[in-house]
Structures are given as structure tokens and as C-alpha cells.
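Hello again, I could really use a second opinion on something today. I've been puzzling over a protein and I'd love to understand its fold better. I'm sending you its amino acid sequence along with the C-alpha cells. It would help a lot if you went through both lines with me. I've dropped the whole record in just underneath, so have a look.
***
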Amino acid sequence: MTILAETYLGNQATNSALQQQVAQARQAEALLEVYLQTDDRAKGRIHAHSTTGVELGIIKSREQFLSTGDVFITNLGQLLLIHLHTQTVMVLSFNGDVMGHAIDLIYLGHVLGNHHWPILVQGDRIYLEMVADPAVMEATVKNINIPGLCIDYEVRSPDAPLQFSPHTHH
């Protein structure tokens, strides 16, 4: 049986009364906790399992972005505490001048798009959402052989994730 959580109570980090309610629910073993991926933050309907294996359905407005510490009340009267995982992203940067490598860079964009890997370009860095095996993604990028290409990884806080645009076909 799936337990539904539709009523948002607030965030315990900014609401001391709610923080006390969560502590009391934890003490009474009436607290459910769930760990979600950062890309779940904006979804209107989320299917997940609590840390104790309880099947959950979270229903919220798409305009509401979840944060660690958000609290819902379930249809059975239990509190549900939201935790967000950190976000690991691949970071591509270039050591040196990329002038003269326009074709390689265009090809890199083609390969990333062809694999449907969400990217975000900020300044002189290209961020890739980790949607496939990291070894496969890294090997694919390295295979393009762009001189000076550096591949790193960055762990983003759940409070400051990168927002990748969804990929669509027109």
C-alpha cells in the first residue's frame, strides 16, 4: 500500500515548532524519512520509498521546489521528512587555448546531444548531469581527443544543485 503525502507543513530548518514536531514524531516512531535525488525537487508527483521501506507517493505543486528539511503530513497522519542527496556532476574545462579546435568543440556538442546527456554551460565550464555510468561518459568525452580538455567531478550541495534543462525533440 502506498502512503500519500500531499499536505506540506513547512521546513524544519526555518520553523522551530515544526522542528519540535519532527523530534516528537521521531521519538514516537511516527516519522517517515525519505532521500530524494536533486532532480526530484521540481516534480509534481514523486514515487519513493522511505528509509524503512515504506512506499510513498508525494504530491505537490510543480512550482514548489523541495529542500532538505521539508516536512509533509501523510494521509495516515505521519510526518514525512525530506532529505536530498548531493548532486555529482562531470565538469569539462580546457587547459590552454581552444582556438583552432572549433570543429572538435562542435563535435563534442553533437556527441553529448546525441547521447541525450543534459549539459549546462556556465562561464568557461561545461557541466554534465550524471545520467549514465561515469566511466562510459568519461571514455566518450576523452575519445573526442580535444587538446587541453580536463575532466573533473564536482559534488553540489542539495541546496545549490545545478538545474539542467530537459531534452526535447521538436
Q: What stands out?
A: The beta strands are 3-11, 31-36, 45-49, 55-59, 70-74, 79-84, 87-94, 119-122, 125-129, 149-156.
